[in-house]
Structures are given as structure tokens and as C-alpha cells.
Amino acid sequence: MVFARWFRLSTLVGALVLTGLSSQVCAEGDIVAKVGGVSLTRYELDREVQKIMPFNVSFHGKVSQEKIDDIRNQALTALLERAYKVRFALAEEISVANEAVEEEMAKYRSKFESQAQFEQALGAEGLSAFRGSIYRELLAKKAEAVAVDSGVKVTDEEVRAFYDKNKSMYMRPRQFKASHILVKVDPASSKAERDVLLKKAQGLAAQAEAGEDFYNLAYYNSDDRSKYVGGDLGYFHEGQTVPEFEEALVKMKPGEIAGPIKTMFGYHIVKLVELNEPRQLNFEEVKDNLRQSLEKKQRENLYDAWMNGLKARFEVERFDK
């Protein structure tokens, strides 16, 4: 019955919140800011903080007060941007269907065994205020789609013109395909310990040079996770590996074995499997990624211009301390 009553009343909530009558859905003390009359609540701020927090916890599971303050500012900035979008939606008479709000509410409700547990989890915020928050979130997304996404248009001619003008950006560097065996060396080890490991690496190199199966040698002897695929490092470009490793590779021919090669990780025995010289990537190879890149840049420019216009248009009121 509680859920039924809430469902009948829920269609009124969006309008109440968005027209500034937020006191009918949440107490004035719960509002941390307003953008052109659109409210941001402390409950929304807490949820936004919780979204960001997991990415900022240290190895020891701690977060400094300075970091917490920074996260809160990030969360508030995100919510202010959302409120600008909502205010734009109101001005442009953009709306969200009630069914979309109910569908989103159902996702949250499904995490609980009963409606009563769901309402209990919402605490002082309550169903109406939470639903209003969901409505504003969906409305902001729709506003952004109308104002920004619909304006992103990159033609085939623009993609081709950019490629022709910037061909030098689409040169593939020298590419290697190689396998290796790593004899790991602890930087804190003694000279005597390093000498033992060097001798081991030299023995493995001699076995590989003599024609023993490189896959098996790597699988049973390498100290690197690539051992499980026979030391296979896959394809990589010039500049993507440590200098000592690359210096050896550029002097090799496919099928050759070199080593031991000393790097910061230890001693490597390397087998060059394939070598592809630098070449110009043709238009067909890059056009899809190029289009995505141009669309992304265009979208960023449209978004920034839109948001700057909204910030100049609508006033922000701050009530948080």
C-alpha cells in the first residue's frame, strides 16, 4: 500500500522540485546549492562523493582530510553542472517520461528485499526527494543529448581532409613481435648472487641457441608472467620497451636469439619472431578512429561553449559551509 500511494503521487514530484518548491520535498536545511532555482541536496552530494571515493583510497585504505575535501569539491562541481543542464531543460521545455523515471527507480528498488527496506535505506531523504533526484539526473542527460550530442556532425569530407593534411601523424613506427625468458634479479642482491643468476641466464641462452624449444624454455624457467604463453610478448612498437631491450632487437633478424641482455628487471634471453618496418598507415586503416577522434573533439568544444553559456545565464546560490 505504501508503494502504491507513492506511485500515484510520484508524478507530481518532478514539477515540485524543478519549479523551486523543493521545501515540499526536502527541508531547506538539506539544500547545499541552487542553480536558477534548481536544488542540489546534501543527499545527492553524499552519493556523488561515494562514487568518487573508491578511486582515491590509499593502499592502506585511508583517505586524508585534504583528499576528502577535494573529493567533495569535485562532487559539488559535478552536481552544479548537472543543475545547469536541468535549468536549460526547463527553459527549453524538455521533459522526461514518467516511465523512464520509474524504470530507474526500479533498478535501485531491486537491490532490496522489500519496499520497506528500500525506504529505510533512503532514510531522511525519503522516496519523493530521491525520485526527484533521479528525475533531475535523467533530465540533465536528455538536455545534454539535445544541446550537445545532436550537434556533433563530422562529414566524410572532413575526415578525409584531416587525414590528407596530417598524414605524418599516421606513420606506424617499427614494430616487433618477440618472446623472452627473464631471469629476475633483485636490485638489493649481492654481486655473488647476481653472478649465479647471470650464469643461469647464459646457460638458458646457450640452450636456446642450440635449438631447444624456446616456448618450453620460457615456460619452465622464466620469472615473468609471460612464461605461461612461452614468453610471448606479442606485438609492440619502437619506444614501448626499455632501451637495452630495444637496442638488441633493432640489430636482430626474425628467428635470431640474443642475450643475456641486462635491464632493470634482470637478464633477458630474447627471440625476435617478426619485424615490421615503419610505414604510412592508409586512410582506410585509420578513418574510423580518426572520425571518433574528430567527433570527440567537436563534442568537447560544443559542451564547453554550452556550459559557459549556462554559467553566464543562471545564478548559483551556495548554502553549504
Automatic annotation (TrEMBL):
Keyword Isomerase: yes
Swiss-Prot/TrEMBL keywords: Isomerase, Rotamase, Signal
PROSITE patterns reported in the protein's UniProt record: PPIC_PPIASE_2 (PS50198)
Domain PpiC: residue ranges: 173-274
Membrane-traversing stretches: none
Signal peptide per UniProt: 1-27
Key word Signal present: yes
GO molecular function, one term: peptidyl-prolyl cis-trans isomerase activity
Protein name: Peptidylprolyl isomerase
Organism: Desulfuromonas soudanensis
